[in-house]
Design brief:
Layout: E1 3-7, E2 13-17, H1 22-31, E3 38-42, H2 48-59, E4 63-68, E5 71-75, H3 86-91, H4 97-106, E6 108-112, H5 125-133, E7 137-141, E8 144-148, E9 156-158, H6 164-174, E10 180-184, H7 190-201, E11 205-207, E12 213-217, E13 225-228, H8 233-245, E14 249-253, H9 261-269, E15 273-276, E16 280-284, E17 293-295, H10 307-314, E18 320-324, H11 334-339, E19 344-348, E20 351-355, E21 364-366, H12 370-382, E22 386-390, H13 393-396, H14 402-407, E23 412-416, H15 419-429
Parallel strand pairs: 2-14, 3-13, 9-10, 17-18, 21-22
Antiparallel strand pairs: 1-22, 1-23, 3-5, 4-5, 6-8, 7-8, 10-12, 11-12, 14-16, 15-16, 18-20, 19-20
Helix pairs in contact: 1-2, 1-4, 1-7, 4-6, 5-6, 6-7, 8-10, 8-12, 10-12
Bound molecules: ligand EPZ.
Length: about 425
């Protein structure tokens, strides 16, 4: 199993380029099969989740042509199989976007039920509520969701929970449904807007994405398009906190600063200087960081995907902080790991009380999930001594060339897969 080995205590300095947003790309790749013409998608992040979804799309019969690591052409006209193979949904939950896309275009889709994951049970009842409201019969059979409709028809749908996935899946299923769909209490994340913009570039008629009321007028057909994915605000935020936690000075490039407002404002609250440019933000960290409180909320609130990253930074900030996780029920699994690095963190229900300590010390830790794994790397970069992060396959799901980008900022980090390589690293860094 591959690991990261890190020598901490080095302030990160320099510039880093952010890639395309994984969570926008997963939805847009699924939406691309809704036309029989060829769709070209650029600025794809070269990460495991994207590559698995492209296999799933090829698996149902679409033609998938990888132009280069960040560009793909997809043509859905040859799709013959409306049933997605279990192996794909097991690897990435977001294969469930193929439900909305296949139902929307072919009025039938069979996708295995996504399991829970390390951060919570993650039900999909709101997705199913939306499909049924559009006229589909939805059953769970042999561990799969079977959705089919004689005819789909627009409807007025009110989400009980603000859900990114349900919002996107209902947009997909209704984009070609005759009539009008009004989706209330919709998620407003940047990647919801990106999916709507993508579908509109294919001839869809979707208005209001980015607000909590989205209006979709079904269209007969969708046509080819060329589209570039928005920058990944979570990858950007992760590097911003890496700069803060190491007392560094980093220019994070190819971002949309507006998407980072909640993150930037929290970094300023703990004492960083955040400078915004057209498509970049610069984070400069002072000697000492101080405490703050944060509660994760749907966009534009503070993102749950940035919760572990701020928590490990608060672990070395002066004073006592409270981190409240209001979106998922089990997103503090990194607490046990950073406690082994000397952090003073106590989890009570959906809050973590963190009393900052001067410094963390390096230890062997294990990544419990994607964002917590990235946060443990941040902890290792700031800690005194050597940290080894196991189970980095989680991190590789959503971060492209993570260790390379960190190295370009001066970090002492290597991807290794044996004790021998760890010893070699120790000898080299001293
Ligand atoms: C998306 O997950 C992201 N994943 C998550 O990012 C992100 O944390 C989450 O949105 C919130 O921003 C992708 O986009 C692939 P939700 P999603 O539906 O759509 C409840 C990462 O690290 N809910 O907005 O699954 C749910 O349990 C990942 O990149 C229902 O109750 O999240 C949760 O409490 C982790 N019923 C809340 O809503 C439903 O039918 C928000 O979930 C759907 C959701």
């Amino acid at each position: 199993m591959e690991q990261y080995v890190i020598k901490g205590g080095i302030p990160l300095r320099g510039e880093v380029e952010i890639g395309g947003a994984k969570n926008a790309a997963l939805a847009i790749l699924s939406a691309s099969i809704m036309t029989d013409e060829t769709v070209t998608i650029e600025n794809l992040p070269d990460v495991r989740d994207i590559n698995v979804l492209l296999e799933a799309i090829a698996g149902i019969g679409a033609v998938v042509q990888r132009i280069d690591k960040s560009t793909v052409k997809i043509n859905g006209s040859t799709i013959g199989d409306l049933s997605v193979d279990y192996e794909y949904i097991k690897k990435i939950r977001a294969s469930y976007y193929l439900l909305g896309a296949l139902l929307g275009k072919y009025k039938k889709a069979i996708v295995p039920l996504p399991g829970g994951c390390n951060i919570g049970s993650r039900p999909i009842d709101q997705h199913i509520k939306g499909f049924k409201a559009l006229g589909a019969d939805v059953d769970i059979k042999n561990g799969a969701i079977v959705a089919k409709a004689e005819n789909l028809r627009g409807n007025h749908i009110y989400l009980d929970v603000v859900s990114v996935g349900a919002t996107i899946n209902i947009i997909l299923a209704s984009a070609m449904a005759p009539g009008r769909t009004i989706l209330e209490n919709a998620a407003k994340e940047p990647h919801v807007v990106d999916v709507a913009n993508f579908l509109n570039s294919m001839g869809a008629n979707i208005k209001g994405a980015g607000t909590d009321v989205i209006r979709i007028k079904g269209v007969e057909k969708l046509h080819k398009t060329e589209y570039s994915i928005i920058p990944d605000q979570i990858e950007a935020g992760t590097f911003m906190f890496a700069a803060a936690a190491t007392g560094g000075d980093v220019l994070v490039k190819s971002v949309i600063p507006k998407h980072l407002e909640a993150t930037s404002s929290k970094l300023e609250e703990i004492g960083c200087i955040v400078e915004e440019f057209d498509d970049a933000v610069r984070v400069c960290a002072p000697g000492k960081l101080h405490h703050t409180n944060v509660k994760t909320l749907p966009y534009p609130g503070y993102p749950t995907d940035m919760q572990p990253q701020i928590a490990v930074t608060l672990a070395i900030s002066e004073g006592s902080s409270i981190v409240t996780e209001s979106i998922f029920e089990n997103r503090f699994k990194y607490a046990d790991e950073i406690r082994r690095m000397g952090a003073n963190i106590k989890v009570e229900g959906n809050s973590a009380i963190i009393n900052g300590v001067g410094k963390l010390t390096g230890a062997r830790v294990s990544a419990p999930d994607l964002r917590a794994g990235a946060a443990l790397v941040i902890a290792g970069l700031s800690a005194e001594g050597i940290t080894i992060v196991d189970d980095i396959v989680y991190i590789q799901r959503g971060y492209e060339r993570f260790e390379e980008k960190l190295k370009s900022l001066g970090a002492e980090i290597e991807k290794v897969s044996s004790e021998k390589e760890i010893q070699k690293f120790r000898l080299r860094v001293g």
